[in-house]
Amino acid sequence: MTNTRTREILSVSELNAAARQLLEGAFALIWVEGELSNVSQPGSGHLYFTLKDGAGQIRGAMFRNRNQLLRFKPIAGSQVLVRGRVSLYEPRGDYQLIVEHMEEAGEGALRKAFDALRLKLSVEGLFDLSRKRPLPDYPVSVGIITSPTGAALRDILSVLQRRFPALPVVVYPVTVQGQEAAPSIVAALAQANRDPRCEVLIVTRGGGSLEDLWAFNEEIVARAIVASQIPVISAVGHETDITIADFAADVRAPTPSAAAELVSPDRVALSARLQQDIVRLRTAMRRRLNDTENQIHWLSGRLSQQHPLSRLQQRGQRLDELEGRLHQAQRRHLQELNARLAANHFRLQPQSPMKRLALYTMRLDRVRQSLQGATAARLAGTRERLAGLARTLEATSPLATLGRGYAILLDRHGQAIREPAQAPPGSEIEARLARGRLRCRILSDHEEAPTD
Description:
- Its EC number is 3.1.11.6.
- It is an enzyme of class 3 (hydrolase).
- Belongs to the XseA family.
- It is built from twelve helices and 13 strands.
- It is α/β, with parallel strands linked by helices.
- The chain has four domains: 10-105, CATH 2.40.50.140; 111-265, Succinyl-CoA synthetase domains (Rossmann fold); 308-312 and 326-396; 403-441, no CATH class.
- The strands form three sheets. It has a five-stranded mixed barrel with strand order 1-2-3-5-4. A five-stranded parallel β-sheet has the order 7-6-8-9-10, with helices on both faces. A three-stranded antiparallel β-sheet has the order 11-12-13, with no helix packed on it.
- The longest helix is centred in the C-terminal third of the chain and has 43 residues, at 354-396.
- The protein is elongated and about 175 Å long.
- The model has no long low-confidence stretch (mean pLDDT 83).
């Protein structure tokens, strides 16, 4: 009898778990092509089916969070290409395929071509973010490259009419599906770049299958978008549709309507911003005018203080003050002399020496005459100096010069003009006269040769 203690005995569930781990570890994500059969979708939303070919079959499951992304309805008899991982359903021991992506088998070759072209152009740097150009905030005009009868054009025009109806639109009609679509789009891009009206371009069409959208996966279209001198927005298909044109464009919009919103300002928000700018501008203008008015008042005050006539009046007032002080000093001095004379006379009166009195009288007369002469000479000298100062002021005052018919010429910066080079022909100057000003235009100039 065999000893059961030396045997490794597995339960059914342990065997199935080990088999599942073995299968999942041996196979990574794989692509499988086959025909659908036994397709069912219960209330849970999960999709169950059998994938078969002429010699075999395998059960498959695609959970709800993945099959919601399908762009077609799987039905029995459809030839499909799926990507998934091999697993085993342990409760029943069923070998199965857990599918993450499913597409119609006809798209398989196109998908491979798509991936190959995307890799090639990415390696060349055509998709680098560094070459992407920003869109203008307020474009002068928008160019739309699309079918003139498609829903994409109607959606874009509807959004533009709602957001900013004043924005001009130039439509470049093209074929968006079929063999002629790619050359048509390339030609339209070239035409738009020769047209000076547009500042941004939208390349767009409505949704469809991978084959329907294939014109926007052509290499010539991608290179034409990259070569465009005008920023390009790609808005091809629905939000889930990705094309080579999306990678090549400066900006990808998920839908045509979203592209229209990207290029058009919101007139309501723009109007509110404009009102705010107007208020700020008015406030700044009032502040600037107040500052300028205060500066003018201050400069006028300084000009009045430094005007030659004002300074002459101040000097005259100062002279009158000095003359009054001089007269007061003379009177005080004479009073002091008279007081001293009276005191001396009082002291000498008792002695009454006639000779000495006569001598003192003569000396007193000489002193009085000398004092009066010195006073007169000092006053005359002071008046002479004052007259000289007045003549100097009058000689240096520009008012006297202007009064004789001369004028002061000023350039547009208020600087005095001293030579013809400061006022070339055609420039405007200002002539300041004794009374009033003239604005003049220089017709010609003539600079005299310097004399020896």
